[in-house]
Design goal:
By secondary structure, the protein is of the alpha/beta class. It has 2 domains: 112 residues, no CATH class; 208 residues, 2-enoyl-CoA Hydratase, Chain A, domain 1. The chain has 12 helices and 14 strands. A 6-stranded mixed beta sheet has the order 5-6-7-10-11-14, with helices on both faces. Strands 4, 8, 9, 12 and 13 form a 5-stranded antiparallel beta sheet that branches. It has a 3-stranded antiparallel beta sheet with strand order 1-2-3.
């Protein structure tokens, strides 16, 4: 009987693994986010954004951010207020304060108690929205892979009169090979129309590889983080042999498709026809947390060859077709000249834009 009591006592000494506040995950978050995020952010901001995400665990839970206090509310009633740590960047103190708030939530909310083991992850799934529209949270690496966009047939190439028409619906590792084949098989083309309307692009490296087919040694893009700037350059040579080019873009041309369009425009390799593009130019670092979750946090911004930021701005076409009817007189449109204000619009199926490109290639 004495041995049984000793064993029972040993079990009583074991820590309860159901504590809401996983201090290891909190510490990891508070250290890594300020280090990797594109904008300077202190530990207090990271902690408060995470705590405010507690509503993802139970919509009846709210955290108030007062000047010097953190307050937990349940169903509109104050549970407790704590004084904030004086040092905005003291990781240990902010872990302790956050842990106390989360443990109080578990004691008050049946849902918080139910999702105790997943509490930090659920909070991050909401808190990540406070950073920027491109940062994401994934519950596992598999979740992150499953949520990558699925791409249908990406490349279409055909001769239209004297010109080679190429439509790139998205970029992937096979895109360069497909374009090389199209250029080689249609070497007699007088001009090239590259249609990027509606294209979400793909990897930045894929955009640079495609720009390399048309730009004879030059900057395709640059990426700037808080630590440094990396330049992406094309190699000597132009597989298209300097043929006249027009690139079609619209409000859904995004990400690395914008990188390619901007590179061809700013390196004086092509004219752009359509509308302002989407304006997405960020890169994310994948931060794996201790429980297997993945935080894809924006750590860098993408810039055009001339140093223009893509994110939130997009690429302005040389010739604007915004709200132009299919019957619009092309000569009148082109007579307006280049670089006018041009709001974003979906023109992925407009035949007018193709006709404008064909007219430009004749001139």
């Amino acid at each position: 009987m004495k041995k049984i009591w000793l064993i029972a006592g040993a079990f009583l000494l074991l820590p309860w693994k159901g504590m809401a506040a996983d201090t290891g995950l909190l510490e990891e978050s508070f250290r890594k986010v300020p280090e990797h995020y594109i904008m300077p952010v202190d530990v207090e901001t990271v902690a408060m954004r995470l705590l405010k995400g507690i509503s993802a665990v139970d919509k009846n839970l709210k955290v108030g951010n007062d000047r010097d206090k953190i307050s937990l509310y349940y169903k509109g009633q104050l549970v407790k207020s704590l004084f904030k740590p004086e040092d905005k960047n003291n990781v240990a103190e902010w872990v302790e304060a956050s842990s106390e708030i989360m443990d109080l939530a578990v004691k008050k909310s049946p849902l918080a108690e139910k999702y105790d083991f997943k509490m930090v992850d659920l909070m991050w799934s909401e808190a990540v929205k406070a950073y920027d529209e491109d940062s994401r949270f994934y519950f596992s690496p598999e979740d992150q892979k499953m949520k990558q966009p699925r791409r249908l047939r990406n490349t279409q190439a055909e001769m239209r009169g004297d010109n080679l028409y190429i439509r790139l619906r998205a970029f992937n590792a096979a895109s360069r090979q497909a374009l090389e084949k199209a250029l080689a098989e249609n070497s007699g083309a007088k001009g090239i129309i590259l249609d990027l309307r509606g294209s979400p692009g793909g990897m930045l490296s894929e955009a640079v590889e495609l720009a390399d087919l048309f730009i004879d040694e030059g900057i395709a893009a640059s990426v700037k983080s808080r630590q440094d700037t990396v330049y992406y350059n094309t190699k000597p040579g132009d597989m298209s042999q300097g043929k006249k080019m027009v690139v079609l873009v619209d409000g859904n041309t995004a990400s690395s498709a914008e990188v390619l369009a901007a590179a061809l425009q700013e390196q004086s390799r092509a004219k752009l026809v359509g509308t302002l593009t989407y304006g997405k130019g960020t890169q994310q670092n994948l931060i794996e947390l201790g429980d297997g979750a993945v935080l894809a946090l924006t750590h860098a911004l993408v810039y055009t060859p001339s140093g223009n930021r893509l994110n939130g701005r997009g690429v302005l076409p040389n010739y604007c077709t915004f709200e132009m009817p299919e019957t619009k007189n092309i000569d009148n449109l082109l007579s307006w000249g280049e670089n006018h204000p041009c709001p974003a619009e979906d023109r992925s199926e407009s035949s007018l834009d193709v006709a404008v490109a064909e007219e430009l290639l004749k001139r």
